[in-house]
Please model this.
Amino acid sequence: MNDISAWVWWLVGAAALGIPLVVTAMPEFGMLAVGAVAAAVVAGLGFGTVIQVLAFVVVSVALIAVVRPIAARHSRQRPRLATGIDALKGRQAVVLERVDGSGGRIKLAGEVWSARSLDTGRAYEVGQEVDVVEIEGATAIVI
Model:
């Protein structure tokens, strides 16, 4: 055991910290693994045990102190990509059957949708382009 260099032990430690990172999906283990790699580099450069441990602690703590708040802030933000019916709001559609306050049909995002006019007194004729303002169930509300 004494024949194995300290940097190898640090790399083994880094790999060992990678296992709980994958199993638990806790990024802190990854940050500790990066600290172990930093200690391996310091050991490979020939520095003593105290400097190696200091490098491990400093890099690990710095990563946890800097990266965790950034990751927490990003996890609280809503995704900017709209999906589902939210992605259809604001899109243009083509009228397939006359659309008025009581109903009609439009082609929206390559699919045929039932639709009705937001303004009940307004009607849209076949071929006109309309804007989708809301989706209520399976009906697009258009203007």
